């Protein structure tokens, strides 16, 4: 099902895509699963520390959905290099060696050092001992961010064209305890899952409610739009009035891996099976919505 593997992303879609329409009204994307570190990155910290920024294993945990025909776009580039779940204008001016040559959007994430290009890790460790040139930033946007967003948009458009509606899950992981510079709620102990649709602005509530009820039935602790409401990808692609429903799902890493070694533990197989079961239930529910 791996259709193509550009430098910026991996596309999992049916072999006949895009010549023929996609077979599922559900589309996944995993923007922080990339582990290919470009040679021009030149950070000031070691590889092990950089890997703490990844949504390690998330694309694989959702792989059961791919087996039932659900397409996915997964980033190849690492989140610490450029964050596909930020807007292109969320530029951190403190990182640059010259004034930015476009609009600046100083969001809360930028103020935390977590803009389009991160200035620090969740614990406050600086990523660089140098300033970045404007050319470096533009290269990362053109080579990684733009192709990734284009690929996600094309999959969503293809599903919408076939079914008249499309449901999009933006797949993420979160540490068991929020880092000092990760969010505006440092040291918060996270639940098993957090579902975010930006307070209902990126999806009809039934999507979020279906997922929450299914997971709770399996015994998981689930919160909705707290502490994570969803960021750029659901904002960019969610438009419920037009039949485009986007939901961010954060999975607690303690459920499936050792947060120090990043190796899967005994809970991995159960979570992977449950995410496949959720995907199967969602596709069946969605087909009833478009019949």
From TrEMBL:
MF GO annotations: hydrolase activity
Keyword field contains Hydrolase: yes
InterPro entries attached here? N-FG_amidohydro
Keyword terms of this UniProt record: Hydrolase
Q: Which Gene3D superfamilies match?
A: Zn-dependent exopeptidases
Indicate what this protein is called per its UniProt record.
Answer: N-formylglutamate amidohydrolase
> What is the originating organism of this protein?
Achromobacter aloeverae
Question: According to the entry, what is the taxonomic lineage of the organism?
Answer: Bacteria, Pseudomonadati, Pseudomonadota, Betaproteobacteria, Burkholderiales
